[in-house]
Design goal:
single chain; about 400 residues; mainly alpha; Growth Hormone, Chain: A
C-alpha cells in the first residue's frame, strides 16, 4: 500500500466515525431522554475537546512526528466512539463527547500534517484528493447509521462495530504512513507582498479558513431550513445538504488536478466566486430549485479551498504547528456560523441571514491572494520532493 493510499484511508476513517456519530445522535438523545439543552451541552463538549486538542496535537506532531500522533489519535477515535453510546447520564455523555472531540481534533491536525509530508515526498499536490476521503467517509458513516436505525440496531452495538472496524482498518494502514522529514527551509510567506510579515500572512490564512468553514457550517445546519423557508417540500429540502456534501466530495477529487492547472490563487478565487454567485442568485430569486442548485454550487466552490489553505500554511514551515493554527481558527468558523445565522434570522428572516454566507464566500474570493506561494515554495519541485527521513522519533 502506498503512503498516499494509507493517508487517504485515514481521512476516510475520520469521516466515517463522525458520520456514524452524527447519524445516531437522535438515538442517544432518546436513550437518555435528553432535552435540547442537554444535547447542546454534550455537543459543546465535542467542540471544546477538539479546540483544546488541536494546538497540542500540532506541538506533538512537531516533536514526535505526525505519524505517531495519527496512530494514537485514530485508535483513540475508534475506541472513543463507543463512549457516548454507553454514557448513562447527560453529564457523562458530555465527558464522553469531550474525549471524542480530543481524539478528533488531534487526528484532524496530525493527519493533515501527514498528508503534507506525503505530498512533499511525492512532489505533487495530493491533499485535496485525500480530503475527498473524509467527505466520502462521512457519507458512508451517515448512510450506515441510517440503515442501522431503520433496522432497529441500538447505538451501542452499532458504535462498537463501527469503532472496532475503524481500529481494525487503522491497524492495517498504520505501517504505511511515513516518517516526517525535516521541515523545508524557512520561506517568506507569500500571502501578500514581500514587505508583509509572516505573522500577517498566517493570519490571512486563518481568516480564509474561518470564512470557508463559516459557510460550510451554515450549509450543514441551515440549508434544509432555507429551502423550507422558500416553499420547498420537506423531501426536497432534505436534499439540500446532501447536494452540498456530494458536490464537496466530488469537487475535492478534481482539486489537485485543477490546482496544477490554474494554481492555488486562481482556483480558490474561482471557487469563491462560484459559491458567492450561486448563493446571491438563490437569495435574490427565492426559488426552491435555484436554492437547491445553489447548495450544489456552494459545495463545489468551497470543496478545494481548505486543502489549499492547509498547503499554504505548511509551506516552508513545520507542518504540525502551522496547521494547528489554521485548523483551530477554521473550526471556530464552523462552530460560529450556524448560531450567527440563527441570531440574524430570528431578527429578520432565514434568507436575509444567509447573506452572511455570501459575505463569507466573497471574502474567500477576495482573499485568495493569501494562497500565493513563492517560486521557491511548495510549487517548486525541490521543496515538494524532499525525501522524508526519520529525523524525529515516530
Amino acid at each position: 500500500m502506498s503512503p498516499r493510499a494509507a493517508i487517504a484511508i485515514v481521512f476516510t476513517l475520520n469521516g466515517f466515525v463522525l458520520g456514524t456519530w452524527g447519524a445516531r445522535i437522535p438515538a442517544i438523545q432518546d436513550r437518555l431522554d435528553a432535552g435540547p439543552g442537554g444535547l447542546a451541552v454534550a455537543l459543546a463538549g465535542l467542540a471544546a475537546g477538539a479546540l483544546i486538542a488541536m494546538p497540542l496535537a500540532g506541538r506533538l506532531s512537531s516533536r514526535h512526528g505526525s505519524r505517531t500522533v495519527v496512530r494514537a489519535a485514530l485508535v483513540a477515535l475508534g475506541l472513543g466512539l463507543v463512549l457516548p453510546a454507553v454514557a448513562p447520564t447527560v453529564a457523562l455523555l458530555t465527558v464522553a463527547t469531550f474525549a471524542l472531540g480530543v481524539a478528533n481534533g488531534s487526528l484532524d491536525v496530525s493527519m493533515n500534517a501527514q498528508g503534507i509530508e506525503v505530498e512533499r515526498a511525492m512532489g505533487r499536490p495530493i491533499l485535496s484528493t485525500v480530503h475527498a476521503g473524509f467527505s466520502f467517509g462521512g457519507l458512508l458513516g451517515a448512510g450506515a447509521g441510517a440503515l442501522a436505525a431503520a433496522a432497529g440496531v441500538g447505538a451501542g452495538p452499532h458504535f462498537l462495530a463501527a469503532g472496532l472496524l475503524t481500529v481494525g482498518v487503522a491497524a492495517v494502514v498504520m505501517g504505511h504512513l511515513i516518517a516526517d522529514g525535516p521541515p523545508p527551509r524557512a520561506l517568506p510567506h507569500a500571502a501578500a507582498p514581500a514587505a508583509t510579515s509572516a505573522w500577517a500572512g498566517r493570519w490571512q490564512l486563518r481568516a480564509l479558513a474561518f470564512c470557508c468553514l463559516f459557510a460550510e457550517g451554515a450549509a450543514m445546519d441551515w440549508s434544509a431550513v432555507h429551502l423550507r423557508a422558500v416553499g420547498a417540500a420537506a423531501a426536497v429540502a432534505a436534499l439540500a445538504y446532501a447536494a452540498f456534501s456530494v458536490a464537496m466530495a466530488t469537487g475535492r477529487l478534481t482539486g489537485d488536478a485543477l490546482n496544477e492547472r490554474w494554481g492555488p490563487v486562481t482556483l480558490a478565487r474561482r471557487g469563491g466566486l462560484l459559491a458567492t454567485g450561486a448563493m446571491a442568485v438563490s437569495l435574490a430569486t427565492g426559488l426552491p430549485i435555484v436554492s437547491l442548485l445553489a447548495y450544489l454550487a456552494l459545495g463545489a466552490g468551497l470543496s478545494v479551498v481548505i486543502p489549499l489553505i492547509f498547503r499554504a500554511a505548511a509551506a516552508g514551515a513545520d507542518a504540525g504547528p502551522a496547521l494547528a493554527g489554521v485548523t483551530t481558527t477554521g473550526y471556530l468558523g464552523l462552530l460560529s456560523g450556524p448560531p450567527a445565522i440563527g441570531a440574524v434570522a430570528s431578527a429578520t428572516s432565514v434568507p436575509t441571514a444567509l447573506l452572511l454566507v455570501v459575505v463569507a464566500t466573497a471574502a474567500v474570493a477576495l482573499g485568495a491572494g493569501a494562497l500565493r506561494l513563492p517560486r521557491a515554495g511548495v510549487d517548486a519541485v525541490e521543496d515538494l520532493t524532499h525525501t522524508p527521513t526519520p529525523a524525529r522519533a515516530a
